[in-house]
Write a structure and sequence with these properties.
It comes from Litoribrevibacter euphylliae. The chain is α+β, with helices and mostly antiparallel strands and 123 residues long. It has helices spanning 11-45, 59-72; strands spanning 84-87, 92-105, 108-120. The radius of gyration is 23 Å and the shape is elongated.
Length: 123
């Protein structure tokens, strides 16, 4: 049998390929839910910029609206202290900036940061 015509995967190349694919899938299963939660947060605060009823609302009322919408969308880890208001010259900006840590292996963590900003309508 001629060795030049033999083709295919060896056991080691198959094991190595499966380890790489498995590692990528494992990492994806840990990261994807974080991005889904952030998408939910963005979808909750984005309509605030168009909501004219909030132009005269106090910060506590806006926080209450945000937290109710988060609760409906099953994002329960956002607390009122995570919501920040920044006053600029002609608008108020709502910020929900946070970072999430994912325990990977032993003492290795993956840190993912998100910044969500929206301008509230002015009077």
């Amino acid at each position: 049998m001629n060795s030049r015509k033999q083709q295919g995967w060896t056991m080691w190349s198959l094991a190595f390929s499966l380890a790489i694919v498995g590692s990528i899938a494992w990492l994806g299963l840990k990261i994807v839910p974080l991005y889904l939660d952030n998408g939910t947060i963005r979808s909750v605060i984005k309509p605030l910029s168009q909501d004219r009823s909030l132009s005269d609302a106090s910060y506590d009322e806006v926080v209450e609206v945000i937290l109710k919408r988060m609760n409906i969308n099953n994002v329960r880890w956002v607390k009122d202290e995570d919501i920040e208001f920044v006053e600029e010259d002609n608008y108020t900006q709502v910020r929900i900036d946070y970072e999430k840590r994912i325990k990977m292996v032993s003492n290795i963590d993956l840190i993912v940061t998100f910044k969500n900003h929206v301008n509230l309508p002015s009077n």
